[in-house]
Structure formats: structure tokens, C-alpha cells
């Protein structure tokens, strides 16, 4: 099988294999079942990227071949290259919902090996992360990757959040123009500053009225008595 048939899942799983990796524990390294791990290991062996060692009665060891080491070295070299238009296109496709390398490969129509190197480059430069699970690999944008395709400076998300924070009561200024016009405001201000000139009623007026009424009543009573005497 040609090395061009290598995909990102192969590369991601290959990076999990160390000097002491054994087949019996490979599944836990790539977060999948023993059956799926065995299938992936068989594919890596078929592509010439690993070989098995068997020290009976010990566990079955896994060893990266020279071809596998060369693939990792090439991926590391590609990961140090500068960000370009194709990288931006991959991030844009991911922002649109593409989370699987196979989906990206079908959309972009590029070789699986080239896509694997591109995805590893984006991972190394902190634009994406990936997760091995159940024999597959899921891709996710990081904050840096999201801001990269949106053309926003780093920290832009925090600035937006601060701009959207509502004002506290102490920051809000009273608005009078919406309730009163300039003329009404001036009249209200003058009413506050002018002295109170209203004449207060005199308490003695009530007593005076009572005296007058009493005098009138006395005069009327005397007049009535005088008339009765004449009759």
C-alpha cells in the first residue's frame, strides 16, 4: 500500500505509540475498544508504519518502523511552515460544521496524506484540537482558530463581552428631555428658586366673624322684644 494512502487518523494513532507501548493497552491510549484498536493497529502494520514484537509469554509490543518515523518527522517539518490560504480554507470548512477528516478531504479534493499534514500543522500551531474516540478522530476549532478566520485580534472575544456588559445604575445619567421640553424645565427651575409669596390666612379673622355674628343676633333679639312690648 502506498504511503499516500495515509490519513490523519493513522498519524494521530502513530503519535500515541511509544517505546513501551503494547497491543493489550493500545486501546486505552486511543480511547477505543480493544477490537477497534486491533483493527487500527492492523491497518498501521499493513501500511508499514509499525511492526509487532512478541516476547512469549509476554505482551505483544508495538514498534514504529523507519517509515513511520519518517512520516512523523515530515509532519513535524510541515507543522513549522507558515499559515497560508489552504489552511484558512480548512478552518472555514470546520467552522461550517466539518468535524471529520474524511469530510474535509471530500470537500477540498486533496490527498489524504496532504490533508493529514495540514491538520497536524494546524494542531501544532494551536488552531485546532483533535480527539480520538471509538476508532475515529473528531476535529474542533480552538479560540485562536476561530479568531483567525474571523480576522479578529486575540482577546477580541473578551472585548466584545465587556462592551455588551450592561451599565450599572451609577453609570446611567438621568434624561430629562424625554419627559419635559426646555420651556417646562425652565419653569420648573424658576418655581424651585422663587420665594413663597402666598399670603397666609390670619388666624384672627375667624374670631372677628364670630363677634359680628353674636352682635347681630343680640340686636335682632332686642328688636323682637321691643316690638312685642308695643303690641
Explain what this protein looks like in three dimensions.
The chain is mainly alpha-helical and 231 residues long. It has a domain at 3-143: Winged helix-like DNA-binding domain superfamily/Winged helix DNA-binding domain (Arc Repressor Mutant, subunit A), CATH 1.10.10.10. The chain is built from eleven helices and four strands; from the N terminus they run H-H-H-E-E-H-H-H-H-E-E-H-H-H-H. It has helices at 8-14, 23-29, 34-46, 66-79, 85-95, 101-108, 112-124, 143-150, 156-163, 182-193, 204-230; strands at residues 50-54, 60-64, 128-133, 136-141. The strands form two sheets. Strands 1-2 form a two-stranded antiparallel ribbon. Strands 3-4 form a two-stranded antiparallel ribbon. A hairpin with a 2-residue loop joins strand 3 and strand 4 (136-141). Helix 1 packs across helix 7, helix 4 (66-79) crosses helix 7 (112-124) and helix 6 crosses helix 7 (112-124). It is rod-shaped and about 160 Å long. The model is unreliable at 154-161 and 174-180 (pLDDT under 50).
Task: Quickly describe the structure.
This protein has 231 residues and is mainly alpha-helical. It has helices at 8-14, 23-29, 34-46, 66-79, 85-95, 101-108, 112-124, 143-150, 156-163, 182-193, 204-230, and strands at 50-54, 60-64, 128-133, 136-141.
Key attributes of the depicted protein:
single chain; 231 residues; mainly alpha; Arc Repressor Mutant, subunit A; two-stranded antiparallel sheet; 11 helices; 10% strand
Amino acid at each position: 500500500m502506498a504511503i499516500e494512502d495515509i490519513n490523519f487518523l493513522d498519524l494521530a494513532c502513530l503519535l500515541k505509540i511509544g517505546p513501551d507501548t503494547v497491543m493489550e493497552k493500545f486501546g486505552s491510549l486511543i480511547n477505543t475498544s480493544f477490537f477497534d484498536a486491533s483493527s487500527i493497529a492492523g491497518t498501521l502494520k499493513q501500511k508499514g508504519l509499525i511492526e509487532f514484537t512478541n516476547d512469549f509469554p509476554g505482551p505483544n509490543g508495538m514498534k514504529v518502523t523507519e517509515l513511520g518515523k519518517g512520516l512523523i518527522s515530515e509532519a513535524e517539518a510541515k507543522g513549522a511552515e507558515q499559515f497560508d490560504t489552504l489552511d484558512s480554507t480548512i478552518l472555514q470548512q470546520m467552522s461550517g460544521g466539518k468535524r471529520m477528516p474524511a469530510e474535509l478531504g471530500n470537500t477540498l479534493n486533496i490527498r489524504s496524506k496532504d490533508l493529514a499534514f495540514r491538520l497536524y500543522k494546524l494542531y501544532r500551531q494551536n488552531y485546532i484540537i483533535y480527539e480520538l474516540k471509538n476508532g475515529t478522530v473528531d476535529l474542533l476549532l480552538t479560540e485562536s482558530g476561530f479568531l483567525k478566520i474571523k480576522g479578529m485580534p486575540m482577546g477580541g472575544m473578551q472585548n466584545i463581552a465587556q462592551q455588551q456588559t450592561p451599565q450599572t445604575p451609577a453609570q446611567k445619567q438621568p434624561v430629562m428631555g424625554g419627559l419635559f421640553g426646555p420651556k417646562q424645565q425652565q419653569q420648573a427651575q424658576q418655581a424651585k428658586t422663587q420665594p413663597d409669596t402666598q399670603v397666609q390666612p390670619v388666624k384672627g379673622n375667624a374670631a372677628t366673624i364670630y363677634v359680628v355674628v353674636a352682635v347681630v343676633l343680640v340686636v335682632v333679639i332686642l328688636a323682637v322684644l321691643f316690638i312685642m312690648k308695643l303690641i
